[in-house]
Amino acid sequence: MAVAAVALTATGCLQNPNPTGGAGGGGLGGFVDGGTADGDKNVTILGAFGGAEAEAFEASLVAFEEESGIDVQYTPDQDFTTTVKQKVNSGDSPDIGLFPQPGGLLEFAAQDKVNPIDTYLDYESLDSTLVPGLLESARYRGRVYGAPMRLAVKSLVWYPKPSWEDGGYSVEPTSMQDLASVTDTVKGDGVAPWCMGWESDQATGWVGTDWIEEIVLRMWGPDVYDQWVSHEIPFNDERIVQSFEEFGKLAKTEGNVLGGSRGILNTPFGETMNPAFGPDPQCYLMRQGNFASGFLPADVQSDLDAKVGIFVYPPFEGGFEGQAILGGGDIAGLFNGNDDDAKAVMQFLTSDQFGGEWAKAGGWLSPHTTFDATNYPNETTRQMAEIASSADVFRFDGSDLMPKEVGSGTFWTGMVEWMSGASSQETADKIEASWPQAAEQSS
């Protein structure tokens, strides 16, 4: 996480890097030779997702394995971040790692322990098919060290389609200001417009960080967002404080959110939208990522297109003019650059040909705008993919890029304190004071 600042300061270098020009950490020009034995037709992959997701991932590799003769061995690990560090640092790295956050990958880039993608992928061809901006999350000192193999889209607003349409409300607000007007209209009809739940055990507050990131990106644009995340500007910059205040107009105004501040902090995030379904909705709107479909009631999931509608969280009038998308994803990094088998697997994993079986199973989005959308199981998922594909800019979840002491520490707890009554300035000041010196020095 500490090297994320260095990575983001170089995001202006969007061209194809010169693989022999010494742009990589430590002046890499060739390959990192970790992983298993070269040429043995076995490729090991370590990742964080398990269960049904692991099964869908492995199903998406079957045809490739049969055609290539390569045996791909996937190992899931819920403590991936710790395990991959231990393995790489002890000389027992997998051939490929699937990183749920970029920070760990960038740390390995700084240590010359992962291969830059220009040594085994066609950079220009890859970049031309990806959602704009995705590769920047894996850039370190001008060079990219990983490529996405799964996409998460967070800039979605969900609503119960039958009730929303019966109310005659707008499904295409053109700006955040327009969305605020819709909020007022719904509240005027005697129903809380927004469903919001942040409770997540020790991680309570992370939902709130997504809201702030969403608003910073829209009010001030991707350049300021990058500067904020990398600490080129302080966390308590006046523009960030203004973003807190803007969110407060929605979240802290009486009647806007079901249950008010107490309800927000006590409602499990996975149950946020449950009150929206039924003949008399208690709330209507939820801003959450595409993965939220897996938390909806079973009868809603079984008939998603009929029961749920979505629209993109809109731009801020007077702010960034384009449509920005906040999200995340899993980024594949190669530890065994001298193994043709491992490189072949990486080329497949990061292509628009990967993931058909996973897409059909549900819960997966391709990072490629050229992916065959007929693989998605319903129109709602296809709409999510289209929202991502048509974005003018994509930015990775900011808290995942900040040092962990902040991103999954004081930013989370700070949001809880803010929702409990702390001022925007007080909250931003406290988070700024917690920014670790090691991360500051790395930039």
From TrEMBL:
The UniProt transmembrane annotation reads: none
Protein keywords: Transport
The keyword Transport is assigned to this record: yes
The record's InterPro entries line, in alphabetical order, gives:
Bact_solute-bd_prot1 (IPR050490), SBP (IPR006059)
- Key word Acetylation present: no
SUPFAM superfamilies listed in its UniProt record: Periplasmic binding protein-like II
Give the start-end ranges of region Disordered: 423-443
Family statement drawn from the similarity comment of this UniProt entry: Belongs to the bacterial solute-binding protein 1 family.
Report the protein name in the record: ABC transporter substrate-binding protein
Q: Which organism is it from?
A: Fodinibacter luteus
